[in-house]
Design a protein that fits this description.
Among the domains are: 75 residues, Ubiquitin-like (UB roll) (Roll); 70 residues, DNA polymerase, domain 1 (Orthogonal Bundle), CATH 1.10.150. Helices cover 47% and strands 9% of the residues. It has 8 helices and 5 strands, in the order H-H-E-E-H-E-E-E-H-H-H-H-H. Strands 2-1-5-3-4 form a 5-stranded mixed sheet, with helices on both faces. Strand 3 and strand 4 form a beta hairpin.
Length: 261
């Protein structure tokens, strides 16, 4: 059915006619109409719109609080965290704790290892929102009160464990977590505990030697003695001086592979 706007048009013409009779121009009439609409809309905003400025907001279904307080290295840290943000990203780019390294970013290499409630975790695969009520310790948090190195760090230095050094923070955190749980581990126990940390330089024996030195288990520090012990046997078998020279250089090479590049 067609709509008849004739009545509305006549009513508008009557209003304009009344305004003209009162000495009000068409332009002034339109300005007043616009002003009255603006006042009405602002009044509705003041009544209902400011309700969102209150401190008590209703919870949104499926939403998470972004401003968190984290316990990092014994200190409360306030930080704005996205819902899917990993702990490694928060530590490095929100809190400036760059000792935690990002390498594989898929929980495979262990360079990002931190301690959460005393247990080693890959921070690249841990959501920050999951640790809000837990204690996080990074490589920056294991030093002494005066900045001195942790015993594990000193032992690693003495055993020449770090080569390029990129994996070292994760190796330190894994070793510290192990020694807190088991102060006197065997070499095999240390090997199992450190197996989640990769070293691209291949200095695994050096790191294990460092753990043994840190726990005082010096008799399990290996320096290639098995090959050195086999050298005299090779000489007695008829190798002579040449065999001895070869064994000596081999022993030096083993020592170099254990300690160096």
């Amino acid at each position: 059915m067609p709509i008849d706007f004739t009545g509305q048009r006549h009513a508008g013409e009557r209003e304009l006619g009344d305004a003209s009779a009162r000495g009000t121009s068409r332009r002034e009439f339109i300005k007043r109409i616009i002003a009255s609409g603006a006042v009405a809309s602002s009044a509705s905003f003041m009544v209902g719109g400011l309700g969102g400025c209150t401190t008590q907001r209703p919870a949104v279904a499926g939403g998470v609080e972004r401003l968190l307080t984290l316990n990092v290295n014994g200190q409360p840290r306030r930080v704005d965290v996205l819902p899917q943000e990993t702990l490694a990203m928060t530590l490095r780019y929100k809190l400036g704790l760059t000792g935690t390294k990002l390498a594989c970013d898929r929980a495979e290499c262990g360079a990002c290892t931190v301690m959460i409630d005393g247990v080693s975790h890959y921070s690249c695969s841990t959501l920050t929102h999951s640790v809000r009520a837990r204690k996080v310790v990074t490589i920056e948090g294991v030093r002494g009160p005066n900045g001195e190195l942790h015993p594990v760090q000193r032992a690693f230095v003495e055993e020449l464990s770090p080569q390029c050094g990129f994996c070292t923070p994760g190796q330190v955190m894994a070793a510290v977590a192990l020694l807190q749980k088991n102060p006197k581990p065997s070499r095999e126990q240390a090997r199992h505990a450190m197996s989640g940390n990769l070293c691209r330089c291949g200095a695994y024996d050096n790191y294990l030697n460092g753990v043994m030195r840190a726990c005082g288990n010096l008799q399990e520090i290996h320096r290639g003695t098995a090959l050195g012990a086999a050298a005299p046997a090779a000489a007695d078998a008829g190798g002579g001086d040449e065999a001895m020279d070869g064994a000596g250089s081999g022993g030096a090479g083993l020592s170099g592979s254990g300690h160096g590049a």
